[in-house]
Amino acid sequence: MAGAAVPGSVSTGVRAMFLMLTPNESSFQTVEDVPQYVQQATPVFIGLMVLELVVGVLKTGAPVVTLSDGVTSISAGMISRLPLWVFRQLIVGSYLKKTKQE
């Protein structure tokens, strides 16, 4: 589209992470034109986790984020991708089964 944002820019990554993209930035002619938003937002997500850790250390003198909190955040992100992976596996499995029957 004409008003699409520059893929990979920091502002696009931040706004994609918080679902704040404009309709012009999130509308595309074909599926191949759709950027990989997860890959763009991942560095921003990790950067915010590091920023939280640094601010906590500067403010209290000790880390306020526990290891379990960090692992939980990363695990939640991974689990949110699990349904897509399972669905893709079902599609591929169905296709392979159908082609073997023919």
From TrEMBL:
<dbReference type="InterPro" id="IPR051689">
    <property type="entry name" value="Sterol_desaturase/TMEM195"/>
</dbReference>
<keyword id="KW-0560">Oxidoreductase</keyword>
<dbReference type="GO" id="GO:0050479">
    <property type="term" value="F:glyceryl-ether monooxygenase activity"/>
</dbReference>
<keyword id="KW-0472">Membrane</keyword>
<dbReference type="GO" id="GO:0006643">
    <property type="term" value="P:membrane lipid metabolic process"/>
</dbReference>
<keyword id="KW-1133">Transmembrane helix</keyword>
<protein>
    <submittedName>
        <fullName>Uncharacterized protein</fullName>
    </submittedName>
</protein>
<dbReference type="GO" id="GO:0016020">
    <property type="term" value="C:membrane"/>
</dbReference>
<keyword id="KW-0812">Transmembrane</keyword>
<dbReference type="GO" id="GO:0005783">
    <property type="term" value="C:endoplasmic reticulum"/>
</dbReference>
